[in-house]
Amino acid sequence: MRKIKFSAVVTVVFLIFLSACNSAQTTKISLAEVTRSLFYAPQYVALEKGFFEEEGLEVELQTTWGGDTTMTALLSGGADIALVGSETSIYVYAQDSRDYAINFAQLTQTDGTFLVAKEPQPDFEWKDLEGSNFLGQRVGGMPQMVGEFVLKNHGIDPHADLDLVQNIDFANIPGAFASGDYEYVQLFEPTASVLENEGQGHIVASFGEESGKVPYTVFMTKQSFMEENDEAVEKFTRAIYKAQAWVAENSAEEIAKVIEPYFEDTDLDMLAASIDRYKSQDSFATDPVLDEEEWENLKAIMDEAGELPADVPYTDLVNTDYAERVMSD
Fold first, then answer.
1. Any idea where the domains of the chain sit in the sequence?
2. What SS3 class is residue 162?
3. Strand partners, 63
4. Is residue 16 over pLDDT 90?
């Protein structure tokens, strides 16, 4: 009996020790995403496939709905890392922030919105937009700036040639379009496909195909967090890179099965079709490097929209060290 009791005690002590070691090796990361979208499929893959856990990270995801609220969460300490458009880091930098946000891992490399028409338009041409009632996105946000950039490239002045409405909150745009008298709207997936499936809209064009490569959504963190958590940021980037590789190597159907828990109200076939649409236009970055050409394209789009507050150098707000390290492993 004594031997049994002694063995039991040793086992319990060992398990407690092992649990303590595992706990000590796990770093908790609070991650804020600007919205919930299939556009961020690699992020959900990293969570569901356990790539963060493999790096010793416990990532808690929160959806903060909008660029302003996401950056507020990051800058106030409500989140350690944010997935949001790179333009937000430029806005913060221009305000002379002492602890501004650094872009360190790119997730998407094109615009992720699609032009949805109220009525079917199999022979759509961009000039069809002239004089239309157009439900736009938030002023100063990437969707709206890219939208304006594309329209201007097609000879359309969005503020002179359209009846442009921009006073609807991001989360309420799909409902407003479906119930209102708007003729066109700019939407992400799977919302665009859901409206199409319900007969309330029809996808007629892709802003991502028209605008070229830009650092559309990027993981960023404050300078101070990066300096104090260098190893954690590298591990986070490595997990994202694993997910990017997995997404590139697998079919839209397989990706949809993995990330389905994040889109429980959307049919699996529709998820797969939406993911395939993003894959076909190379929206998902295949590595976390945000290169200088993309950064300059971003600034050109912001400048064209009249929203570039300062000519922020690439080297000031972009850190590719982590991406380059994990890619060389």
1. 28-110+214-328, 113-211
2. coil
3. 33
4. no
* 294-311 pLDDT per residue, tens: 999 999 999 999 999 999
Say how far apart CA 311 and CA 173 lie, in whole Å. Answer: 31
Cβ contact 127:155 at 8 Å? yes
Say if CB 159 and CB 128 are below 8 A apart.
Answer: no
How, if at all, do strands 217-222 and 101-108 pair? Answer: antiparallel
pTM of the model: 0.88
- CA-nearest of 212, 196, 188 to 121 is 196
Tokens 């236009």 locate to 281
Nearest to 114 by CA among 208, 217, 35, 252: 208
Instruction: Say how many C-beta atoms besides its own lie within 10 A of residue 246's C-beta.
Output: 17
Q: How high is the mean pLDDT of the chain? A: 92
Residue 12: predicted pLDDT: 52
Residue 97 pLDDT grade (very low, low, confident, very high; cuts 50, 70, 90): confident
Asked if the 28-110+214-328 domain carries CATH number 3.40.50.300, the reply is: no
Peptide bond before residue 190 is cis, with ω within 30 degrees of 0? yes
Instruction: For residues 250 and 163, give the distance between their C-alpha atoms in angstroms, rounded to a whole number.
Output: 42
Terminal Cα-to-Cα distance of the chain (whole angstroms): 52
- Distance from C-alpha of 157 to C-alpha of 44, rounded to nearest angstrom: 37
Give the pLDDT band of residue 171 (cuts 50, 70, 90): confident
113-211: CATH class: alpha beta
